[in-house]
Amino acid sequence: MRIGILGGSFDPPHNGHVALAHAAAEQLKLDEVIFVPVRKNPLKRGPVASAKDRLEMVRLALQDETGLSVSDVETSRAGPSYAIDTLVEFTMVRPAEYWFLVGADALRDLSEWKEPQKLLDHCRFGVVARDHLSPEKMLATDLLPYSRRIDVIVMKPDPVSSTLIRNDIARGLSVEAWLKPAVWEYIRKVGLYKQ
User: Fold this and answer.
1) Of 4, 14, 194, 195, which is the most exposed, with the fewest CB atoms less than 10 Å away?
2) Is the pLDDT score of 195 beyond 80?
């Protein structure tokens, strides 16, 4: 079994997240991609929406998506979310080959992660280049020592981001093109991201 783990705040989950998961599944021949919303990312400011709301939005975003699922492993655990802790939990429950799916910007900060070498010893990384960071540039720099554990995922650049969506909602602009209808309906019903 080959499983991808796509962690993040998903604040909110958007069509770009789903496209990344499908691209990773196709290119890395993954049997499943599991979305894992974080409780608290130790390297970033906290999410705007609650863990409960973000978990529900991911469920709604994936409800009609084959091969994609969601786990509450991090939102149900107290304290900061660490990739190595999540990997250990998954491998105990579901032994498989695992890939962490990340953007090049996140992988660039790998040395700041908890036990990065242990993580690299027990899984691979599927990396999507973002912005100016092409896969070739990314692997030719600081990440060269890790290149044997990195698989590049090729995708067209996607201008959408959760931050942009939150800002547009707060300004009363339309964001429907970037979200699954069920996610947009949930955001409107709960009143998320308004000023």
Assistant:
1) 195
2) no
